[in-house]
TrEMBL record:
It comes from the Eukaryota. It holds the Pfam family C1q. Residues 54-185 form the C1q domain. InterPro entries: C1q_dom, Collagen/C1q_domain, Tumour_necrosis_fac-like_dom. It is found in: Secreted. This is C1q domain-containing protein. One of its GO terms (cellular component) is extracellular region. The lineage of its organism: Eukaryota, Metazoa, Spiralia, Lophotrochozoa, Mollusca. Residues 1-17 form the signal peptide.
């Protein structure tokens, strides 16, 4: 596919048309070398990588928790209702997202506490704790995190109980607690 697109660009950049007496247009190749045209193509694209950018794998997921739960110490939250799972990189059984390729990723998580209960969870990258959500404990409270992470292929990202409060609230009808992420580039 890249070769076909490159040939088309070469024809567009390196050719000019003239109208023949029959009324049709005829293309005539200029004296540019293939290397010159390929170099121009890279500059036009601006990345130097040509069309291969479109061949990368895209990944995105969104999942929610369908029932309230008391989390065990250090337990990974398993968001079991999967709404989107492009490329199947989120595992609802383990609650872990695995990066399919190196890149920059965006992750979001919103959690709700059970009535008058505490909750603290963290976003983890592999074995590294990053940012926390601590929504409070008077009534039902919501907490949200948003994080951009640079990941390598195979890196694991998940939401894990972080000590202190451990009562997470959700239900099937409203799906209050959720986790999502996607590959930016």
């Amino acid at each position: 596919m890249d070769t076909i697109c490159l040939i088309l660009v070469v024809l567009v950049i390196g050719c000019y048309g003239y109208k023949a007496e029959s009324g049709s247009y005829t293309l005539k190749l200029e004296n540019a070398s293939f290397e010159d045209l390929h170099s121009m193509f890279k500059k036009i694209k601006g990345t130097g990588t040509g069309l291969s950018q479109h061949n990368k794998v895209f990944s995105a997921f969104a999942a929610s928790l369908t029932a309230s739960k008391t989390l065990g110490n250090g337990e990974i939250v398993k968001f079991n209702k999967v709404w989107t799972n492009i490329n199947n990189d989120y595992d609802q059984i383990t609650g872990v997202y695995t990066a399919p390729q190196p890149g920059v990723y965006q992750f979001s998580c919103s959690v709700m506490t059970q009535n008058d209960k505490k909750l603290r969870v963290y976003l983890w990258k592999n074995k590294e704790r990053t940012v926390a959500i601590y929504p409070g404990y008077t009534g039902h409270n919501m907490g949200t995190l948003n994080m951009v992470l640079q990941l390598e292929k195979g890196d694991k990202v998940y939401i894990k109980h972080g000590g202190g409060g451990r009562e997470i609230h959700s239900n099937t009808g409203s799906n209050y607690s959720m986790f999502s992420g996607y590959l930016i580039r």
